[in-house]
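Letters spell out the chain; the tokens describe the backbone. To illustrate:

===
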Amino acid sequence: MARLADYFVVVGYDLDNRVEGEGLGRILQRFPEKDWEDSPFPQGIELFCQPSGWQLVPERQPASFFVAVLTDINSERHYCACFTFWEGLDSPQLKKVDAGDADEADEEPAVVQHAKLFAPKSLVVVSRLDYTEAFRNCLGLIYTVHVDGLSTPLETVIGNLLTCIIPVAGGSQIDESPVCSLDKVPQSPACDWLLACLQPGPEEREDGLRTITLGAGDRQVIQTPINDALPVSGSSVAQLFRQLGIVNVLYLFCAALTEHKILFLSSSYQRLTDACRGLLAIMFPLKYSFTYVPILPGKLLEVLSTPTPFIIGVNSFFRSETQELLDVIIADLDGGTVTIPECVHISLLPEPLLQQTQTALSMVLDPELEFSDQAFPPQSMHASALKIQDKEIRAVFLWLFARLFQGYRWCLHIIRIHPEPVIRFHKAAFLGQRSLTEDDFLMKVLDGMAFAGFVSERGPPYRATDLFDDLVANQVERIRQEETYPHKVMNHVKELAEQLFKNENPYPAVAMHKVQRPSETSQSTDQSRTPFPVLDDVAVQLFIDHAVAKLKSSPPVVKVELKSMVPSGPPLGDIVDRNGNVMANSARRLEVVRNCITYIFDNKMLEAKKLMPAVLRALKGRTARVCLTQELNQHVLQNRAVLDDQQFDYIVRMMNCTLQDCSHMDEHGIAAALLPLVTAFCRKLGAGITQFAYSCVQEHMVWTTMQFWEAMFYSDVQNHIKALYMETDDGNKQSNSQDQQDGSGSRREISALDLAAEQNRLWPTLSKEMQMERVQKEESTVFSQAIHYANRMSYLLLPLDTSKNRLLRSSGLGDVESVSNSYVTNSIAGSMAESYDTESGFEDAESSDVANSVVRFINRFVDKVCNESGVTNEHLKALHTMIPDIVQMHIETLDAVHRESKRLPPIQKPKLLRPTLLPGEELVMDGMRVHLIPDGRDEATGQMGGPPLLPAEGAIFLTTYRLIFKGTPSDALVGEQIVTRSFPIASLTKEKRISVTLTMDQFVQEGLQLRSCTFQLLKIAFDEEVASDLAESFRKHLHKLRFPQHVQGTFAFTVGQSGKLVLEPKTKDKNQSLKTLSKNLVKNAKRTISRQYVGRKKEAPATWENRSTFHTELDEDEISVSEEVDQSALTLSSTIRSSDRQTMSNVVERACCRDYQRLGLGTLSNSLTRSKNEPFRISTANRMYTVCRSYPGLLIIPQNILDPIIHRISRCYRQNRFPVVCWRHSRTKAVLLRSAGLHAKGVVSFFKSPNAPTAVPSQADSTSLEQEKYLQAIISSMPSYSESTGRNTLSGFTSTHMNTSESSDKLRQPKIGDLMKQVLGNKEDVPGTFSRGGKWGSIRGSGRLSAYNPDIGTRLAGKESPQPNGGPNDPLFLRQQKAYLYIIGDKAQLKGGKQDSFQQWEVIPIEVCDVRQVKNSFKKLMKACVPSSQTTEPNMSFLRLLEDSEWMTLLHRVLQVSVLVVELLDTGSSVMVSLEDGWDVTTQVVSLVQLLSDPYYRTFDGFRLLVEKEWLSFGHRFSHRGAQTLGSQSSGFTPVFLQFLDCVHQIHLQFPMEFEFSHYYLKFLAYHYMSNRFRTFLLDSDYDRIELGVLYEEKSDRRNPQVCKSVWDYIDRLNKKAPVFYNYMYSPEDEEVLRPYTFISNLKVWDFYLEETLSDGPPYDWELRSRQESLAEEPAEKAETGAPKSLRHIVWPCYDDLSKVMPDAITKLLQDLQNLEAELGQTSEKWKDTWDKIKTTQRTETKLESRPSFSSSLLMSSNLSHQRRSQGVCLQDSRVGSSIKLGLDCEASATSTPVAGRPSTSTFYSQFHSTESENRSFEGILYKRGALLKPWKPRWFVLDKTKHQLRYYNNRQDKDCKGVIELSDVEAVIVGTPTMGAPKNVEEKAFFDLKTDKRMYYLCAQESSNAQLWMDSIQSSLSDA
């Protein structure tokens, strides 16, 4: 029973108090004055009566009514029904208000004075019952009585209202409502009347209706619900759906369930209350337990920023204040919108539930939708009435919850039955059996407060049941069958709706409302009514007191609660299995698992071993895991199963595999089922020492998860309690182990909950003693289980080796908060690694730390479960003292086990194989045992034939140079092959941590994935024996080696320095002089710079400021040069200080100079009579690297450009890289220039018309003029231009054009035009018909060209275009000629430039590939060629990824531009390549152009020279682009040089007979470009190399002859030994220009990117190969004594190096020849001699036959008379391997020194071979007189300007020097006289003497001219020094 109303309150406007201009309300009267004991008076009612604030208004408002809800401290809800009406204020009251207003300086005080004001007054009923309509009627009645002045006193009506008592819920037979009918009410209130009132009348008693009257002639029926557990909603739910729509309400529903904040907005207060009530109603059976305020007063708006979830309603008036709420979902009821902030993610219902719910709701709300498309829709399809529709919607949600929570009772653990049932929900099992572990929504709901309330309310097995209990227990089957049939669902929904409606309206027929309303006149008239009177509180209180007294004296009304057993419904397991997520062919898998276990226990180990991989695969499936636990269970006898070592090993492995895929929640109960088994299986280690399986399965997250232990504990307690109450105790043994697979108790005849229900029913009938006994028994059961679990937990949490302290660092034991999230880290090992550094890991105290952490964990567990399951405090204390002892005891047993287990012979792991190291390479970290995991390549998986070699186990070694894995395949059946994978550390591009599951071990292990830009990938998993700190230090060492602080830390510099990075060697070097020189050079350069800078400052500060706009990346490049004297007249020797001369002669010796001399681009002679008619000269302006730091010291510039001008010109270009000549076409004499792009400012000035009038020539103008002069100088150097210089007029232009172009170039024009179009990327360009002429490999179009940008390349394409500058429009003029100079520039750079038709150059803008593009493309290329994992997605196939990488497109672009430039040069135009900073794309294009145009660069020496000149001297930034140091780490690896090599490889493929070197040569260079083994490809420019002193160092280190510092020397050495680099098809044609096809379809993927040999790693370090072979031969020799050995050899793809195992025929024959010679004991000849001999004999034979055969023409050139350029004079010495290296005066000396009857030496140059320690500037035979009385002997003399010495040998072939004359000691060279014993017939003048400070050398040449030359050369060397 409950009071209808607890309090009646009158609240009015408070005229005395106003706060900040706002009115306040105050309680005028309240009844009863004293609080009820069971419901205290709620505070702050006055705020809720006027939620928008108390205000006076100028006109009377209509009366209003709404219900606000307040929640008290006990979370009871009080419904405050507020009825508000407006009363006029009389004048004294108004004065008060006015005074207040005036004080506050109100806006319109004047108006207010005369106007009449109305103040609100509220009548409030406070009740704990929610009867909105009854309250509306009652308060309306009181108002009517007051307004209409009815005869009934207000006190009576209010007294009656406050004494009304009604039943809470229906079903009681007697009607206890106090009905006070009119006829019983006397005029004066008296006791007998009260008693009469309190007796029910006869008619109501029969009816059972709740009829009330307040004694004012009214009568109303209150229908109380039959079951008050179901919410009463009226029509609020339907209303909510109408306002917001289905989807929005579903969003709100999910948001409320997953604990988000929800705010309703509306201008109507009653609608806010209804919406909130509706939302709560659809959440049933869950109850909302957070802040719930349907109407929030404006004063309390700050409540909205509370951190907890809420459902709140606010008037739309305050909408603006809700805008800044970031995490609140706002539902606007009036506008029908729901706004979800960006940061809020609402988890929606899982599919298909969401869809089905939406469908059902739309069928309820809009039944016509289904038939709206039908031709004959049914007549009567209308939505139900609002009240019915409301119940139908609620029925849909009930149906939804029944599906969400079906089977929940099977996951309840009952852990205490007496005195109160204690029930826990096993969330993991519930989610696991519903296969919804991944579902976000359900996870959040089950973790929420509402569900916790649901469990505690509905968990008890013996209680009153309701509609939901029935639905979830008895109708699951029906729901499941109907869920896919919407109409059947609707029928079910309608049935449920009917029940809900009946519950709310048990007597729908009765409608006896008789409530008076105020008359129209009293409402409308505006005369001043009497204010609401002050009531007589004594009279009202009297009513209340009488009612209370009467209730006390009457017998207490006991509502009989019908308790019953709650049905559990069908078990969960069946549901899922029928859904069919059981794995395919699982029966076969289970069979495999069973067989394997049987084999293990039958000791058939070989069989078990074979099945093992299949079993481990099968155990991925849940059914197989359950099967495993059941099978193992059968082999446990009396809780113990002793195994031998191998059985134990297999069982542990299977357990690990099973636990491997269990999440930390253990939703399938697998870990739970294994828990008893891991303490059962064991092996004997020694006397009385037993090792249990638990010590080997501790590595899993599940053991450190508190929730898992709780669920396990409760499950076990439930079984024991059940056993306690079962009459028979026999089922005890089995149920114990079996019942743990399902999340709850057993499924046999009776469940634990049923048992508990029965016990609860009997409880009241038991005697006190019996009751106590049962409570104690249960308590001690729980206590004993807690002890048992403390033991179990210590088993699984204490590591075998307690010193390891593994678990202390794992997340689970760290702190309480992390327990719930302990699955964040992938593995325990993973989380250890990070925190490892913080602890030293070496103290002895660690074992106690382990104990402490485990004790803490167990204590926390025990506290939680014992408090929940009501263990007494004494027992709890006892447990706490027991736990440390348990742990300590266990540690002691473990120590013994650990000691013994160490003695066990370990499982045979393969022996670690040592890698062979290079000379100078040293181990940084010794082998760590790892497993090499297969990646995405087919090679090792056996898909290319042969069994899969990976995974392999072995060790990883870190050396100063490489990272090496060496091991053998894990699968013993594959074979004994040694698997090697390695890559240079310098090529490491990405390292990432991975966690790896090994198929055999089933441990999750830490691993690393290391990717290298040599197209290698190492995926390794550390073996469990490798401690994680070791793995961490491995990573650190790797990083340190990969990114040294300085380039001197790289392997190329530190090689042989015993691992110490010696940056500044203090010992005196052999090479000291050179080092100091180079240091001086740099110092001088710096000094010059600073000096000039200062000087410049003094002269013209303004110009310096100008300069600063050009600041570039390298500050050091900011070099400015003061105007000096005209230096063109001075020569090299006179301008250079003597200290720098030796270095300069070194510069001269550099590759560039030799090449310039060969090309005829200029010489450096010592005389001042340099021919002025040569067009170009070698400038030394940059000798100090002051003009441009990244250029070489000597540059080729036009003859008439003076050095100071160069300084000025260079400023216009980025990085100061101004245009210099790098190659000249031998036939057309066109030159190729290279430079960087212009500075932004330079571009515009560059195109300024030269004759534009300028008042004052500014600096910029003069620079651009100088620039034009410079270009003009280049153009005038061309023969074709100088011919026409006489006619440099307009007609001269055109006539020249007519005779050149018409005749010679007619054929070529369209070709270039087409190329041009391609390069400029014309849209209409169709790659149509190709015709291949000669070696032309690009497209040749036909016909005219389609139109494109007329200003660009028009001359090239032979197009006519009108003059841009309005020149004469004459047909002759329009036939433009081709430009003399084409500038290839960057499209982006050249915007806005106008082409001047009078200039003789033209700009070709092209789009270049950015370095960023190259970098990204290369990354993608690596991923395509070496994928990290196997994939079957079509989008991830090799070809698709290759295409996505766009690598081939980039190659195509570079080749296309290069071919265009080749064509232009061939037609006689010069070309200047001026792209980006001039060191990336420019270098690629320029090098390729020279390679295609000049056959010399296709030889060994030529290619070397090309790379040295264009890439090294011209400053390609190798270190920066290769990210070789810490500084450049962020820039990433950008393989520009690799791209160039790939282009060369593409050309090589198309012209295999044109290159002297093979593909292997290119791969070799590519590999070592990235490997940092040699110094060649380090540092960014010659300047850097000089600074480090590595530019001119001696060719190889004397101390360590094994170590080559230059890749070229290494190649030379190798080339002498073996023909690996030589291309046997080399047979070039004279002066052949190559024109390759450049379309992507013509390009091939370089096999360098794809090939791998697992037998011995990359084949590019030759010492390793030879060592491995010698190692392999030794055991072979020993074995030969036995049976005859087969000569057959199995060759595996991807394992063997095919070129080595199956060499080509020529290599094979040469090898055989060498072997035979060795057997015969002859000294074997060099391969090159043999090869050349064969070719010469073949050539003579073909001459005799004069009919060339095919094979010979393939091998030799088909041109018979053609002498190979690589052959000739040098044949005789190439066997010995010495070589000739021409220096400065090569042509002069070659022509004028025939030596001892040899042919002309002009061929020296093309066969220059460098050998170590040889530098020959001049050489020949001289006779030398021995000591006194010794005869004259011919000796081979060599003048070496580099080393400044004259050496002599016995003969030319001799390698050993017989003597050295240091030129620094020579005092004079004098003409000698013939002496005794001199050679016969030699002229007198052929004698000369060399006087040194020690002795005199007497020499004699073969003829006088020769002697003169020798004397001059020696003299010049002396003067140079």
In short: The first strand starts at residue 2 and ends at 3.
